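As a next step, the fold was encoded as tokens, giving this record:
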Amino acid sequence: MSSRSYCCKRSSQICRPDYPAGSLFVVRLKSLLATGDEEAITTLLKNQVKHVDAIIELSNDDWMKEPTAPIPPQVLLGLWTLEYTQELTTPLCITSSRGYTECVRYLLHRRADPNAAPGGRSPLHEACSMGHEGCVQLLLEYGANPNRRSEDGLSPLHLCERSDSVRCAELLLQHGALVNQTTEVMQDTSLHIAARLGLLGHVDLYLRHGAISFINCKNLEGETPLIAACGGNGCDEDIRLQLCHLLLEKGADPEVQDQQDRRPLHHACRRAEHRLVEFLLAAGVDVNAADYNGGSPLSCVLQSAELYQEKRPYLTVCALLNHGARCVYPEAFGKVLRCCSELPDVIALLYNSYLSLQVYSKWKQDIPENVFQAHQSFYTTFFSLSGTVRSLQHLCRFTLRKHFNSQCCHLIPLLPVPTAIKDYLLLTTEQSVGLL
């Protein structure tokens, strides 16, 4: 069976499978599953199982049953549960998880129970999790419950987590699946899950089938689908940007906070996704909103900047400053060096956001020696600025930016001056981040 096979834990009651893990049938079945031989697996299930709902034990972790069995090292370390664990399944679960449509049809025609779930998940859960739309359609036509929860509290719709499972989700909704049903543990709706994984087609489908009324619904951690989209790891920035655009268009609130008081902007900044940050800023979000720990969006990007160097975090910092983000407190600039020592462009950009900044030699200790050597020219110049006066050109830039404040991004492009000067004022050119 696939890696999503079920585990049935029994501490006081043991399931008696029709085919135990050590039987010749199971040994043969596991061998065929490893090779993926659909025809041979189908033949085996058709010809050798006693009945279509037979319970098959694919593994048995009851190592305590055999006195001579070696004790797993995890037990000696106290990391192993002493519960008796079985991995149980049925022919219909196996074939549904593999997408063997014709065998599923055969089993259902022989009156296999589409809702049997000895291991915790039904055949419909299995088919949806692997994106097998043909099997999903058959199971639903034969009475599979589209809202049945698995042992871990998930509905089949919650398991449509692959980009190729959008048709499965559509079939579930057509057969009465509840689009706003939440998971038992995290209280995620299907919209949360799809947004977090970057499944644009799923999000659009759910919104058209009633999820729009729950578009600002929070899960157990206070996340809305928009927050999930901004903080998820399931897609690239282009998809995430399209997701957020769709959610905002349908009424998502970009200022809703999670349990840590973090807003979508905080999450986007933490991933240094500058186009998403610019999109949220254009929607009018508070560029200086503080989370539970007092962290601003600017501090979020600075703290994670070195983790996302390929995303050019300088661009995110620049976008925030051009929308009125408050500068880092001068006394805390040493912490910036600690977080962003490998990013001289970020340090120079922040340095240029002050009228003047006292540079302390003690900050050198916050920079790893290998990093200092890699950027020796920059840091030699930076620490030589202690006590120097900023150029008149910089002072004029600072004064103008202070006057425009949060409107820098809107007003500077309207000035009747050459493009090079506009770029300098907006801190968008290599020259503008020089240590002037």
Q: What stands out?
A: Confidence is low (pLDDT under 50) at residues 1-12.
